[in-house]
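Human: Here is a favour to ask of a fellow structure person. Comparing notes only helps if you start from a blank page. Give me a protein, with the fold worked out from its sequence. Please set it down just below, with no commentary around it:

Assistant:
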Amino acid sequence: MLLTIIIVLAVILGIFTGHLFISVDSLGSINTVSSYLLIALLFSVGIDLGSSKETFKDIKSKGKMLLFLTIAVMGGTFLGGFVAGLLTDIRPNASLAISAGFGWYSLAPVILNKIANSEIAAIAFLTNIFREVFAIILVPILAKYVNFFTALAPGGATSMDTTLPIISNATDENHSVIAFLHGAILSFSVPFLVNFFYLID
C-alpha cells in the first residue's frame, strides 16, 4: 500500500512540476531520459526474473494461465469499451477501436488520428493513459487483497514495460513472466485490432 501511495504522489508531483516549471521545448529531452530510465528499470526486472531458476519451469502451466488471462482481459476490455460507447454516444466501432489500445496510449491515438479523426484520437489517448495510471494504482491493491493473478489484468499492453516493475514488486517471478508475455501479446495485437474494429463500420 505504501508503494501505491508513493507512486500516486509521484504522478501528482510530476503533473504540478510539468505544469509550473517545464517548458514545451524541454519535453523531448525529458522523454529521452524517461525512456532510458525505463530501459534500465526493465533490465533490472529481467535480471531479477532470470536469477530465479524456477521462473521458466512448468511452461505448460504458464501457457494455460496466459491464454486464460489474455482472453479474459480482451473480453473485459471490449465489453467495457462497448458499454462506455453506448453511455457516451460513441459509435460501437469507434469505442471498440479505442479500447483495443489496451493501455498503449502512444500508438492507438496515432492510428485513430489517421483512420478516424482527432476527436476519437484524443479520447483514445486519454482512455489509454488513464488505464495505465489506474493500473499503477490497482496492481498492488489487487495483489494484496485479491490475488496475484487478478493483479495482472489492469496493465493490459503495459504489462510488458511500464507496469511490469509494479507487477514484479507486487507479485512473484512466475506471475511476472506471465504478465510480460501477456503484455507482449496485447501489444502485438493493438495495431491490427484498432484498425479492424474501426473499419468494420
About this structure: The chain has a mean pLDDT of 83. Residues 61-201 form one domain. Residues 21 and 34 are 17 Å apart (CA to CA).
